[in-house]
Amino acid sequence: MGAVIALANQKGGVGKTTTSVNLGACLADLRKKVLLIDLDPQGNATSGLGIEKRQIEKSVYDVLIDEDTMLKDVIKPSSHPGLDIAPTTIALSGAEVELTNLMARETRLKDSFGTVWDEYDFILIDCPPSLGLLTINAFTAADSVLIPVQSEYYALEGLSQLQNTISLVKRHFNPQMKVEGVLLTMYDKRTNLGQQVNAEVRKAFGDRVYKTVIPRNVRLSEAPSHGLAIVDYDKRSTGAHVYEQLAKEVLAKHGKA
Q1: Cβ atoms within 10 Å, residue 149
Q2: Considering only CA atoms, which of 212, 20, 202, 207 is closest in space to residue 127?
Q3: C-beta separation of 79 from 29 below 8 A
Q4: Alpha helices, DSSP H, located in 114-237
Q5: Is pLDDT of 125 > 70?
Q6: pTM of the entire structure?
Q7: What span, in angstroms and rounded, lies between the C-alpha atoms of 164 and 166?
């Protein structure tokens, strides 16, 4: 059975999608079969991996709303070999409201997995910047949560709310779920602020913080507009190197190095 990791933080712009796409690609390069589920209505992971949204017939929206649509029915190969994606469209933005009146609304994603559990080594879920029903569906299906934290002044603000949501999901739906790790993103070692945030996060979360730190990198920002992971866009860039290191760290945590 593959490891299911939700990437979540209710703050926007912290690097969830960048990490979902590039960690997935680098795990695939290490000979792991990877699925990325795009659970963010913005669909940036979908377009960032070369999927043309106008050509999508069925998406994650259908998986959540239509009981007859299983996750396997919407999976497509991405622009990176070994990395598949369950894409999304803007239709997903209405799912929060539609799910409210459905039975077992918190477990719709988990219930759709079927044989997909056994077909992948890793399943990554790119969550929206909120703690609503979409994120709760991700947490209910996940083994663990990876939390990207931007290296800025308000980095730790809101993390207590995220931890409360994790605790609630553990209590009611998924007692085995744990925090996979905390990842520092957009780090600038030249600034005192970056160094202070780094120290603060490590003090708060201890050894759950990844040794790998994701710096600000122009090539990382450019890659999605070409529908490519960073290792396909610029293999020699700093961004490619750090996500390769992160993938190795994740594998080591799971005993799959």
Answers
A1: 26
A2: 20
A3: no
A4: 116-119, 133-141, 159-172, 192-205, 218-222, 230-233
A5: yes
A6: 0.95
A7: 5
Per residue, the 3-state secondary structure of 63-89, as one string, reads HHHCCCCCHHHCCEECCCCCEEEECCC
Beta carbons of 17 and 237 less than 8 angstroms apart: no
Query: How confident is the model over 105-111, as a mean pLDDT?
Result: 94
Local confidence band at 138 (pLDDT 50, 70, 90 cut-offs): very high
pLDDT for residue 238: 96
Question: Token digits for 234?
Answer: 């610029």
Mean pLDDT over residues 164-175, rounded? 92
Distance CA(72)–CA(79), nearest Å, equals: 18
The beta strands (E) that lie in the chain are given as 3-7, 34-38, 76-77, 83-86, 122-126, 144-150, 178-185
CA distance 140 to 126: 14
Do 29 and 244 touch, CB atoms closer than 8 A?
yes
- Residue with tokens 């056994």, as numbered in its chain: 118
Tokens found for residue 160? 């207590």
d(CA 61, CA 160): 29
